[in-house]
Amino acid sequence: xxxxxxxxxxxxxxxxxxxxxxxxxxxxxxxxxxxxxxxxxxxxxxxxxxxxxxxxxxxxxxxxxxxxxxxxxxxxxxxxxxxxxxxxxxxxxxxxxxxxxxxxxxxxxxxxxxxxxxxxxxxxxxxxxxxxxxxxxxxxxxxxxxxxxxxxxxxxxxxxxxxxxxxxxxxxxxxxxxxxxxxxxxxxxxxxxxxxxxxxxxxxxxxxxxxxxxxxxxxxxxxxxxxxxxxxxxxxxxxxxxxxxxxxxxxxxxxxxxxxxxxxxxxxxxxxxxxxxxxxxxxxxxxxxxxxxxxxxxxxxxxxxxxxxxxxxxxxxxxxxxxxxxxxxxxxxxxxxxxxxxxxxxxxxxxxxxxxxxxxxxxxxxxxxxxxxxxxxxxxxxxxxxxxxxxxxxxxxxxxxxxxxxxxxxxxxxxxxxxxxxxxxxxxxxxxxxx
Length: 435
What we know:
The chain has 435 residues and is mainly α. Helix content is 63%, strand content 1%.
């Protein structure tokens, strides 16, 4: 048996050794963009909680919700919690084993915005938590709110603080549709604070979010020259245009206690942006050719818009408002279920395959190997030049400098100098010639 093990081919042994490395590479390939899944599931849990509340006067939807068992909402909340915990653990592995990738993601104009997504997901999950688990308005809920909001405020200071100071990034150059996630984080935190009775903190978070939203909306709407565009595969993130004003309407409704004029204005803006995107299906044609994690960007904005429509239907009694709430709620549920089915059917298209979009550029180590004897002719020329007694002699010496020598030089783009020397001997790298 031992002899057979020693006779194993080197290539097969190498494959066995690389299997744990490949598995770890896939596990650490879950970048912050995968938190689109948790955003969708957590917002869907909050939508179902809103629809199941007794205050919600939606005859058609309440009839459907009443037909479902009481454990259905708890099951949905548990699935959202499990997905969020799993994604957080996977991203923790990424931080532990691929810290350079995380730093590159933090410096990326798209990747840095999705660093808000896990904290937004936790805030949405906190608002949708059943009363049996966390008492509304209790000390545990207040402590968790601070835990989830503190990273959002720190990221705000980091990102927007350098925009109006002498930072490396200018907002008009790096703004893109995903930048609205930063706004959504502040607005979700404001709504959560208002639901707990913290009016001052809710107003503070709302003012920060709306100030950033106004600047971002004007920047993205005018499309300043040099503004960073996004690839065609990321165009589903355009639906974030809907999510920002919808979340703002919900936050202002929670702060004021009624779905007043301000909330209605923001809700109508969301409807206009939704109609503008839906009427242009060709914009998303290329991104829909193959299933990937970006498809999950459709669900969260539609769910938040359905929640805003639910609050609007409570404020404005009528058939039109109820029909609007019914259509948007059913649409958000269908889209979420379709994404879950696609994820279950095609998990290989969703999982990372080693092509990390936020991978840093590889380090290039250049090794210069020069023989000391190669500098002797050159040094002699320099000595002759500097010891000339007249300017004419120096000029003539410059003109007559005809030297040709080979520097045994090799440039190796590898971390081992021996590889570059071997390539030079085999003729893959030519020596540098000075004539």
